[in-house]
Amino acid sequence: MPFVGGHSCSCKPGYTGNGTVCKAMCDGLCQNGGTCISPNNCICQQGFTGKRCETDIDECSDGFVECNDKAICVNLPGWYHCECRDGYHDNGLFSANGESCIDINECKMGRNTCANDTVCFNLEGGYDCRCPHGRNCTGDCILDNKVKHNRQIWVLDNDRCSVCSCQTGQVMCRRMVCDCENPTADLFCCPECDPRLSSQCLHQNGLLTYGSGESWVENCQQCQCLQGQVDCWPLSCPPVDCEFTVVPEGECCARCIIDPCQADTIRNDITKTCTDEHGIQRFSGSSWVKHGTECTLCQCKNGHICCSVDPMCL
């Protein structure tokens, strides 16, 4: 217990430290990047809520997002994006609300399952397999150069977790439905049905455990417990199409901003130059030490001069 000016200091209940510097404590810790600001009080990153920031806000179901009618809202941990519906793909502009989604011509691109005795007709957002006049079409499907009869059901050779069926000339596939009450459930396809302790995973902080199949966000990565093994990959962020972007503190995805001096990343345009204090033309992306100073570094950002003082230089 340190003494300051002849007095002893200790942290108040709910805080930990040496008495001079105290830090708030939160039982169970703040999850998904949340910050403990006072005893048992977490401030959550955008997109999460709950006492421990354990709950992802579903912007799609809560009505916060309105996607184009050709797109569907997909909720992500801490975020969302508008994804083109089946039968559509993006034209390369990647608009935030999905208005850049355009129809896929499945017939022209060969992305259809029409049987050899039917004719493919492209439709908005899909296609139709029609039987030419005078023929007796079977409704069978062709998959990997093999005939699948109408209403036939099978499991994919290269993906035992997908079940497919032939429905009047069209191959329809879906993920296997997991029934954890079924003792013969395939744990490879349904890791959430594995009750064994050996299939649980320990959180990176060493304090939380997750069951097989559960997922969480840690350091801007999406992590999942798969039969005792933790697998993490970069968090999926929606594309941004703007000149200046920044990743706000406590967030994982870039956002568009107007002020170039606050930008983390810029889309350099070499035609937009800057003129420094000596009248010298500087290309976008170049940097220099401001004349008359030793610690002020300036940078040209698409015609805008941004200067800042390096505190390590003072």
UniProtKB/TrEMBL annotation:
GO cellular component: cytoplasm; extracellular space
Matches recorded under InterPro entries: EGF (IPR000742), EGF-like_Ca-bd_dom (IPR001881), EGF-type_Asp/Asn_hydroxyl_site (IPR000152), EGF_Ca-bd_CS (IPR018097), EGF_extracell (IPR013111), Growth_fac_rcpt_cys_sf (IPR009030), NOTCH1_EGF-like (IPR049883), PKC-binding_NELL (IPR051586)
Transmembrane segments annotated in the record for this chain: none
Keyword Glycoprotein: yes
N-terminal signal peptide: none
Alphabetized UniProt keyword annotations: Disulfide bond, EGF-like domain, Glycoprotein, Repeat
Gene Ontology MF: a single term: heparin binding
Start and end residues of each EGF-like domain: 23-54, 56-91, 103-138
Residues annotated as domain VWFC: 199-257
Cystine bridges: C26-C36, C44-C53
Domain of life, per lineage: Eukaryota
PANTHER family: NEL HOMOLOG (PTHR24042), PROTEIN KINASE C-BINDING PROTEIN NELL2 (PTHR24042:SF0)
Protein name per its UniProtKB record: Protein kinase C-binding protein NELL2
The organism of origin for this protein: Oncorhynchus mykiss
Taxonomic path: Eukaryota, Metazoa, Chordata, Craniata, Vertebrata
